[in-house]
């Protein structure tokens, strides 16, 4: 049985690294098992847009972000090896697992990017916010999994994470902050990933799978741009290196150079806005 498990959940590829990356490093350095779950592909409505990589290959827009996410995880575990890929069929949905050195297990539900909760024409304007609020009944991921209602999505998340929770004693969830004051200006997907998870905690969806206690930590994100650096010089260097690696991969795969500037405001700023403990 695994002693400690840290589960990091966010909306888009790069969100975990930008807003929780130092906590990920601390978990890995403490020999905790780490699970990452991303809700969306971060496709920006451009799931079929092709970018020209520096090597001349054509890369789909979402793939560039996923490659950067994978590069960051390899840096975190200190390995240059590509992850071992496997598939799980969870509630009838095919989900890919990326296993990095048996230390980090990464998943992405690949839901459509839900910019401002409105969405994009290329994704039929489907968004997590609309599903959560009951404005749509189904949502289709960009890799063609159809979630038939909000409960289908929730049950899939519970079943997936329970694969790891059932064999662990001490669990810590790391999720975005749902409060619109504490996390002013956050992306719609950030808020609704958090609200969905808070519903599951309220419903005690995970505690039956685990006999130990569970801690939940909530993190602010875009609002961090206006906050001061709050980590040690060593952790500041680490966070800058981690994000340089992601930016290098993004730029190598067709994203513009200004992606570095977009990320600078968030580096070395990691804020836990609140935390609480659930019983087993």
Q: What features would you describe in this structure?
A:
Helix 1 packs parallel to helix 2. The mean pLDDT is 95. The protein has helices at residues 15-29, 61-77, 128-133, 150-165, 188-202, 233-252, 259-264; strands at 2-10, 33-40, 50-52, 58-60, 84-90, 93-100, 104-111, 139-140, 146-147, 168-176, 214-219, 272-278. The strands form three sheets. An eight-stranded mixed beta sheet has the order 5-6-7-2-1-10-11-12, with helices on both faces. It is built from seven helices and twelve strands. The radius of gyration is 18 Å and the shape is globular.
Structure described in brief:
By secondary structure, the chain is α/β, with parallel strands linked by helices. It has helices at 15-29, 61-77, 128-133, 150-165, 188-202, 233-252, 259-264; strands at residues 2-10, 33-40, 50-52, 58-60, 84-90, 93-100, 104-111, 139-140, 146-147, 168-176, 214-219, 272-278.
Tags for this model:
alpha/beta; two-stranded antiparallel ribbon; 34% helix
Shape type: globular
Order of helices and strands: EHEEEHEEEHEEHEHEHHE
What percentage of amino acids are in beta strands?
25-35%
Gyration radius, to the nearest Å?
18 Å
Q: Strand arrangement, largest sheet?
A: 5-6-7-2-1-10-11-12
What percent of the residues sit in helical stretches (DSSP H or I)? 25-40%
Mean pLDDT: 95
């Amino acid at each position: 049985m695994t002693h400690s498990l840290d589960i990091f959940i966010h909306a888009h590829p790069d969100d975990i690294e930008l807003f929780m990356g130092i906590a990920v490093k601390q978990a890995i350095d403490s020999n905790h098992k780490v699970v990452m779950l991303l809700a969306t592909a971060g496709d920006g409505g451009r799931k079929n847009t092709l970018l020209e990589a520096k090597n001349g290959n054509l890369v789909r827009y979402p793939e560039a972000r996923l490659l950067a996410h994978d590069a960051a995880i390899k840096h975190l575990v200190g390995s240059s090896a590509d992850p071992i890929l496997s598939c799980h069929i969870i509630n009838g949905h095919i989900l890919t697992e990326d296993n990095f050195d048996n230390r980090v297990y990464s998943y992405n539900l690949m839901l459509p990017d839900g910019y401002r909760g409105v969405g994009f024409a290329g994704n039929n304007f489907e968004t997590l916010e609309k599903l959560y609020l009951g404005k749509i009944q189904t949502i289709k991921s960009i890799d063609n999994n159809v979630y038939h209602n909000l409960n289908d999505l929730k049950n899939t998340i519970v079943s997936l994470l329970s694969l790891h929770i059932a064999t662990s004693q001490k669990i810590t969830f790391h999720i975005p902050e749902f409060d619109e004051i504490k996390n002013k200006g956050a992306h719609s997907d950030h808020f609704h990933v958090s609200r969905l998870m808070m519903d599951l905690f309220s419903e005690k969806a995970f505690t039956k799978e685990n006999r130990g206690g569970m801690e939940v930590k909530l993190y602010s994100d875009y609002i961090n741009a206006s906050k001061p650096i709050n980590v040690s010089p060593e952790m500041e260097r680490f966070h800058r290196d981690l994000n340089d690696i992601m930016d290098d991969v993004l730029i190598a795969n067709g994203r513009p150079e200004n992606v570095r500037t977009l990320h600078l405001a968030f580096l070395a700023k990691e804020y836990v806005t609140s935390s609480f403990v659930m019983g087993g």
